[in-house]
Specification:
The protein is an alpha+beta fold and 203 residues long. Helix content is 50%, strand content 16%.
């Protein structure tokens, strides 16, 4: 089993794009031997406050318009989580079950948030996800999120998402992101960078 690590925040829309595209490429290449290990890079710790729902909604609109019209179809800023710490702690607990469960829970939480408009700070929602995937709720510990953050600092994580492959590391591979004078994001695909990232994942 080949493991690709990624440090990311569950509420980061750029991570959602990157993970979806990586999983699609994995399926297209028939590489079921490659698993994603999604670690926590909690932006509310990095920034000192949770992400603002309206700010993320603007990012989502810009991303959809420019590079990902097929994603974020059910995103609802009114149900944006007040905190992502428990959701990421659930992902960490799922990873302790086994790598496949960890990946499935990490992807499921992002699908719920960005495609289904579910508030993933709702404990009843998270308990249901834990039960569905065989994760013991008593193992959901936010301290593991902070431990991932500390490790990410040591490994010079740039932001969310930052991938580590057997051949190198890649911050937000395949997307060039800037903010214009109009205040809006300018997002452009960088196919060559993304192909290099995939080659490093699947080599």
């Amino acid at each position: 089993m080949r493991t690709i690590e990624v440090f990311a925040d569950v509420t980061c829309p750029f991570t959602h794009v990157g993970l979806r595209r990586m999983v699609a490429a994995r399926q297209a290449q028939g590489r079921d031997d490659v698993v994603l290990r999604v670690r926590s890079w909690p932006l509310e710790v990095v920034n000192g406050a949770p992400l603002d729902a309206a700010f993320v909604a603007e990012e989502v609109d810009d991303i959809r318009a420019q590079v990902a019209p097929d994603l974020f179809v059910g995103f609802n800023s009114e149900r944006f989580p007040s905190s992502a710490m428990t959701a990421m702690a659930l992902s960490a607990a799922a990873d302790r079950v086994d790598p496949i469960t960890g990946e499935r829970v990490s992807l499921a939480l992002r699908t719920m948030l960005f495609e289904e408009g579910v508030d993933i700070s709702d404990e009843s929602v998270l308990r249901s996800v834990a039960a569905e995937h065989g994760v013991d709720w008593s193992d959901v510990d936010p301290a593991r999120v902070l431990a991932d953050h500390a490790e990410g600092i040591e490994r010079h994580v740039t932001g969310s998402p930052h991938f580590f492959t057997p051949g190198g590391d890649f911050f937000c591979p395949g997307l060039a992101i800037s903010r214009g004078d109009d205040g809006h994001l300018h997002v452009e695909p960088k196919a060559e960078v993304f192909e290099a990232f995939l080659a490093s994942c699947f080599a």
